[in-house]
TrEMBL record:
CDD domains: nitroreductase (cd02150). Residues 7-55, 66-148 form the Nitroreductase domain. It holds the Pfam family Nitroreductase. One of its GO terms (molecular function) is oxidoreductase activity. This is Nitroreductase. InterPro entries: Nitroreductase, Nitroreductase-like, Nitroreductase/BluB. Keywords: Flavoprotein, FMN, Oxidoreductase.
Length: 169
């Protein structure tokens, strides 16, 4: 799958088959995530791979929109490590780029995932910190439940010429 095809066809997947995701695929996904650009090449990310069934199941209590985790075989929490920022405040952009790379890698491997937001919701941040023992200098940005897709959401172009401005707004 080439890059433009991946961008055009990647969609959020919320239903998964009951099939394990090989550890080698998880590694490939994390390698892709870590290839994201970051401010000053600071790479302020940390990743928590969640692959214990009991822990995945318990996550439904952390977030109102993660029910699909009950079917997912693995999940990855993308976090910003504030102690690793080269330019303070840019961790959100850096980690969002890492999350997008992660989602594209998942899709390219034939898997499915959905980005569920954690930051900036304080109740979600607090819940994830407690459940995963996340230190104060590390901020959870988002969680991606991952698995073999049991659905194939259709892709339609989202191009909208009305949203494009040249030289000035």
């Amino acid at each position: 799958m080439d890059t433009l095809e991946a961008l055009r066809t990647r969609r959020s997947v919320r239903k998964f088959e009951d099939r394990p995701v090989p550890e080698e695929m998880v590694r490939q996904i994390l390698e892709a995530a870590m290839m994201a650009p970051s401010a000053g090449n600071g790479q302020p990310w940390q990743f928590i791979v969640v692959n214990e069934r009991a822990r995945l199941d318990a996550m439904v209590n952390l977030h109102p929109y993660v029910q699909m985790v009950l079917q997912a075989q693995v999940g990855i929490i993308v976090c910003g490590d504030l102690s690793k920022e080269k330019y303070p405040g840019y961790w959100v952009q850096d980690c969002a780029a890492a999350m997008e790379n992660l989602l594209l890698a998942v899709h390219a491997l034939g898997l499915g995932a959905v980005w569920t937001g954690i930051y900036p919701k304080e109740d979600r941040i607090t819940g994830y910190r407690a459940m995963f023992n996340i230190p104060d200098h590390v901020m959870p940005l988002g969680f991606a439940p991952i698995g073999w897709p049991a659905q194939r959401p259709k892709s339609e172009s989202r191009f909208n010429a009305d949203r494009i401005h040249y030289n000035t707004y």
